[in-house]
Amino acid sequence: MRKVSNSKVKGLYIRGRTYYARLTVPKDLKSTLGYEFVQSLSTSDLNEAESRAVLLLRDWRITIENARGTISPDQKALRWKAELNKIKPPTENGRGGFDYDPLEDVYHEQLEKIEESSGLEQAQRFNKIAKGQLLPTKEYVDIFLATRTVKPRTLQQEGFRLGLMVDKFPTLPIRKSDVNKWWIELTQTHISKTGKPYSQETANFILIISGTFYQFLIDQGHLDEDSNNPFHNVSKYNGGGKQKQKAVMRLPWSTKEIELLVKATCEKGDTDLLRFVLIVAHTGARINEIAMLKIKDIHFETDPPYFSITDSKTRAGIRDVPIHPYLNELFYSMTKESTNEYLFPNLTFTSNGERASAVGKRFGNLKSKLGFGPKKVFHSFRHTVTTALLQAGTDLNIAQDIVGHEKGNITADTYNAVGSSMQQRFNAITNALSYDFHKSTGLTLLASCEKQ
Questions:
Q1: Is the full-model pTM beyond 0.70?
Q2: Quick check: 419 and 378 in contact, CB under 8 A?
Q3: Handedness of CA 145, 149, 152, 154 (dihedral sign)
Q4: Distance from C-alpha of 229 to C-alpha of 226, rounded to nearest angstrom
Q5: DSSP letters for 426-446
Q6: Given the DSSP bridges, would you call strands 298-299 and 171-172 parallel, antiparallel or unpaired?
Q7: Listed residue (45, 47, 46, 29) closest to 37, CA to CA
Q8: Which of 139, 265, 313, 384 has the CB geometry, 3.0–4.6 Å to 274, for a possible disulfide?
Q9: pLDDT, position 450
Q10: Which residues pair with 322 in a beta bridge?
């Protein structure tokens, strides 16, 4: 196993073609934790390995800190809470348990030390936490987030929004009136990263995740199970007057506009972006769905050929999509030329676990230079393909199977879970999608752009 010298992540190693994370345990803890932490990252892709290693190394360092006893006063109070809860009081008939436990003496000595070193107020806070009268909000956020199964980007957003809650409510429980006031603060006086208060939509998301977190604490017994969740049915005062209109719905690209985008991308010489545009214009897939495609997801052994989307934001997004005849040579070439397991080998992971961020920014800059406003974005390709399919007379269920939309009815979702056949989907896209650049193949177009 040798260290990876071309990585910014310290602790990244490689054995064969597989990357590993490795961290040496400090000498004073080797007898407790062992000589080192080491674990396979189960990937041969450097960018993905770095993304996974950062999280693993962080967890190992936390384990080392905990082993050294570097805990906060609130964490220490919670440990005392667990110990004090073990003391069994006498039953109603006076049998069992104890009226007094020696542990109480040790605990009171602890309180006296805190008062001497940090003052009466800190000692009172410590006592309330240990006796279960106060709950330090911050100490439970990571525990809650560890139970979440959402996408990395969503998890990061939830962590940030819960950080706002922690700053506002460092201890729990709280009252509904406290949350009502916080709503007004968020939407009228709070200064966000933009220098302005949060929109009502964003403030609502903050309250939703805060309410989910609060309910988690109730359900897990950290807060009184008979208490009400103050984040439910909040009075969302809007201040009156004319309210800001909701965002305008995204518009689909027209056939001529897509042809213009393809031409402009070709002239720019951005071949990766051109590949993206060509693929989404014939599939309606989401940008990150395409970015996450792996070589093993492309199937040429079948007739018609197709690719499998295994990483999507919704359940319906997990699907098989036929490869339009225009893209056959392009897909085949990309699978043979890839230098790693991905169809787009040159993309890098963001901290949110996404690979399409840079491509999205380049597309945004390109379409803005062409004069297109905020109503038309990369996601508009989904609207384009869906619209083209329906206008061509495609059955709604087949169109939904291609673009990965929820069907929303019991018959389609339950009794026809397999959905339409690949031949039906293939026939639909070949019938509905036609562009002027189809005079040559996608691979030929790409080759001509590379020569410019």
A1: no
A2: no
A3: negative
A4: 10
A5: HHHHHHH---GGGGS-HHHHH
A6: unpaired
A7: 29
A8: 265
A9: 78
A10: 306
Radius of gyration for the chain, computed over Cα atoms and rounded to the nearest angstrom:
29
CA triple 97-102-106, angle to 5 deg: 135
> Which residue matches tokens 């000589």?
35
Q: Tokens 């200064």 — which residue?
A: 191
| Single-letter code of the amino acid located at 232 | H
In the chain, domain spans:
2-67, 72-84+102-133, 136-240, 255-451
Residue found by looking up tokens 């019938």 in the block: 431
3-state secondary structure 17-68: CEEEEEEECCHHHHHHHCCEEEEECCCCCHHHHHHHHHHHHHHHHHHHHHHC
Q: What angle do CA 419, 148, 23 make, to 5 degrees?
A: 115
The alpha helices in 172-231, defined as continuous H runs, are 176-184, 200-219
Sequential pLDDT tens for the chain (452 residues): 888 888 878 889 999 999 999 999 888 788 878 889 999 999 998 888 888 888 788 778 878 877 766 667 888 888 788 877 776 554 555 444 444 456 677 788 889 988 998 899 999 999 999 888 899 999 899 999 999 988 777 888 999 999 999 999 999 999 999 999 999 999 998 777 777 889 888 999 999 999 999 999 999 989 988 889 999 999 988 776 555 555 557 899 999 999 999 999 999 999 999 999 999 999 999 999 999 999 999 999 999 999 999 877 777 789 999 999 999 999 999 999 999 999 999 998 886 678 899 999 999 999 999 999 989 999 999 999 999 999 999 999 999 999 988 775 544 444 445 679 999 999 999 999 999 999 988 889 988 887 66
Q: Which amino acid is at 439?
A: K
Task: Please report, for residues 20, 53, 60, 68, 116, the alpha-carbon distance to residue 24 in angstroms, rounded to integers and kept in the order given.
Answer: 13, 14, 10, 15, 39
Rounded Cα gap, residues 406 and 389, in angstroms: 16
Distant-in-sequence, close-in-space partners of 90: CB < 8 Å, separation ≥ 6: 96, 97, 98, 99
Question: How far is the first Cα of the chain from the last one, in angstroms, to the nearest whole number?
Answer: 44
CB 185 within 8 A of CB 179: no
Residues across the chain: 452
Fold annotation for 255-451? hpI Integrase; Chain A (1.10.443)
From the number of C-beta atoms within 10 Å of its C-beta (0-12, 13-18, 19+), residue 45 rates as buried
* Degrees, nearest 5: CA angle 400-404-407: 50
* Residue matched to tokens 């602790």: 11
> Is there a contact between 67 and 32 (Cβ–Cβ < 8 Å)?
yes
405, 312 in Cβ contact below 8 A? no
